[in-house]
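Exercise 7. Given the components listed, write out the predicted structure of the assembled complex. Treat all entries as one system.
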Amino acid sequence: MTHEVLVAIESDGDLVEARAAARALATRLGFSRTDATLIATAISEVARNIIVHVGTGRIMMSPLEEEMRCGLQVVAEDKGAGIRDVEAALHDGYAGRGGLGLGLSGAKRLMDDFDIDTKMDRGTRVTMTKWRFRDELERMKEKRQRRP
Amino acid sequence: MPHRVAILAQDHNLIAAIQSDLSDSEVLELRDDLAERIGRRRVRGIVVDVTALDVIDSFVARALREIAVLARLRGAETIIVGIQPDVAIAMVQFKLNLTPLRTALDLDEALGLLECAR
Amino acid sequence: MTTPTSHDWTSADANGESLLPELVALLRASRGELREEWVRRITDASLLGVMTPDEIFSEVTAVYDNYVDALETGSVETLQAYARDLSERIIPRGVDTDEVLGIVLLLRDVLARRLFVEYQHDKDLLNAILDAYEPAANRIAVTVGVSFVEERERVIREQQEAIRELSTPVLQVRERLLILPIIGMLDAQRARQLTEQLLSEIQSSRAKVVVIDITGVATIDVAVADHIVQTVEAARLMGASAIITGLSSKIAQTLVDLGVDLSMMNTVGDLQGGLEEAERLLGVLPPAEPTER
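Answer.
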């Protein structure tokens, strides 16, 4: 079974790798081309936030297998200064330090679940998940394969 | 300019064909390269072909807007071509602001539009 | 192969695994008579009716040997390869899948009987032999059955996909012009699928104008309006402009009340009017006189 994928975010070349890794995992998990693009785009935004505001961090992508649905969870972590005002950061047009804004609010719009856990001077963790529903055929097949 | 973007001059137009996913610094290089070329010679139109981009995020969108603004300052029109269906859906859902940008389906269309604008 | 008399089968492990090589060797040695027995049973059961006795015999030779190999190795890959091979040999001749499973089960029976005959003098040994044989033989039967199920599932998937595409038709009415009539309920999944199909069609037919007709949409709420607006914007990113038709003044009022910005959209009351507007945009018809608007 597929395990989690880890991408270190340290330079802007890593964003290219993160986008590609996201698409590859999404495809492997059976997401549509469009959903894979949504996921890759969301990851691009949160990864860039790390580079711009902190300089270094990491992204972990993992499959969430449930009976009725399948999810791709992304955890973007850094040990930076933290986000002072999360509400504002999620607001469109928020400029922040890099003046880029829009990244987090846009990523939130692309994903299904979205959570920010930030502590001043300790770091930030963004957890976001995209889900797709399994139809009956897929569920039957999963059940069959799980039997020893 | 690395081989990831090919810039061709055709009549009074510049055609920038992006060949693969670009890093942020490569995106800025493209912007600066075009800005420099617009300055060097008389350019009427710029076509940026993003067919090979399977992600267009806020950074790329902003760079494209900047290219259009720089071009407009020099009297040139910019048209973006080759946005893929899934990328278009992502950009709209993301609410990327691209209203000032002109788009066309492909290079042929864009060159036709630039011709008409004359 | 001599009949084992003082066989040290007591040292076999709990499920009789060490006896498998022995019974496999027996089944290989007796292949001639067992194959014939198997063919007899197949004909008695009226299976493989589409094949002649000679055809049956030539096919079962390979199938028999592969079966015994599969018993021996028991690996998933070998089993699946076996199931695949079976299908490829026999299905193209017009044989049904239940017949294939039927002959596999008959072979299982034929070999089991041979083991009975061989070891019937020693009840405990016979039990140990069957303990080794039965799981191995049943694994084969299950793998063959499952492979058919999976093939059916694959076909169902393909058909589902075809039905999905048919249910949201994007029509090309003339060069560079597409119509997307939306009919019925529009949930998130269907709306997404609609948008994907429209955009894909814009790309392949190089459309410049799309007419989205919502006359047949059951309910318009914020979500549906949102989907339509997003579709229009996405189409624009691909260089196509959209005209919305079938928007009654009542629905327009509902949308305005809901706060939807209609000013950015090009709307026309009916489909015919929308098509004419599209043709003006394409330069097919001359631009409208100011009074016509």
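Discussion: Chain B has a mean pLDDT of 92. Residues 24-40 of chain B form the longest helix (17 residues).
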